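Ops channel
N.P.: pipeline sanity check, posting one input/output pair.
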């Protein structure tokens, strides 16, 4: 799923000519994406997938990626948004939900990203030589988007304590992104 997720996010940017993200995609690989898993024994249609967070990834980056996911889903539902006449024959995008207490996966972290791409808490857990190996760019990446994805019906119909894009849950994350290198320099 990770390679599919990375590809979907790149596709969203390509369709909208958001070329500022090209430098980001050049640094990322499928293994760097967050994971997901089915929600236990209970069968739902469509299936729901709980997001497993990538421990290295900052809140700002996660929020931006969730917006890409929303755009991709909206594009799939309405292909006229990007000039197609009908949907592809593929399955719909997964219904990914952010649990109140998500699992955090300590997977591989990409090197050469901007300081606000990495979780401050995660960076604080590393040894100085591990931080040096990351080759962190001492600047912030601009995660702003010209448009937010449209709301989806199934986002409001969530019958549990999660939603497919819940900005409040992401905002409650106590990770102060991007300040680590500023603090270390002081």
């Amino acid at each position: 799923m990770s390679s599919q997720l990375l590809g979907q996010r790149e596709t969203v940017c390509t369709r909208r000519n958001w070329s500022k993200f090209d430098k980001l995609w050049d640094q990322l690989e499928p293994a760097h994406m967050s994971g997901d898993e089915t929600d236990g024994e209970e069968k739902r249609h469509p299936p729901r997938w709980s997001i497993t967070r990538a421990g290295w990834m900052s809140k700002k980056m996660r929020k931006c990626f969730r917006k890409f996911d929303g755009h991709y889903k909206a594009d799939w539902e309405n292909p006229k948004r990007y000039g197609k006449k009908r949907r592809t024959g593929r399955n719909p995008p997964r219904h990914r939900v952010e649990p109140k207490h998500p699992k955090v996966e300590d997977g591989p972290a990409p090197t050469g990203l901007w300081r606000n791409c990495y979780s401050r808490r995660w960076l604080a857990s590393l040894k100085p030589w591990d931080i040096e190996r990351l080759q962190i760019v001492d600047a912030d990446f601009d995660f702003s988007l010209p448009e937010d994805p449209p709301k989806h019906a199934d986002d409001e119909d969530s019958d549990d304590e999660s939603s497919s894009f819940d900005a409040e849950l992401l905002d409650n994350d106590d990770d102060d992104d991007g300040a680590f290198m500023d603090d270390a320099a002081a």
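N.P.: looks fine end to end. The beta strands are 35-38, 48-54, 95-97, 104-105.
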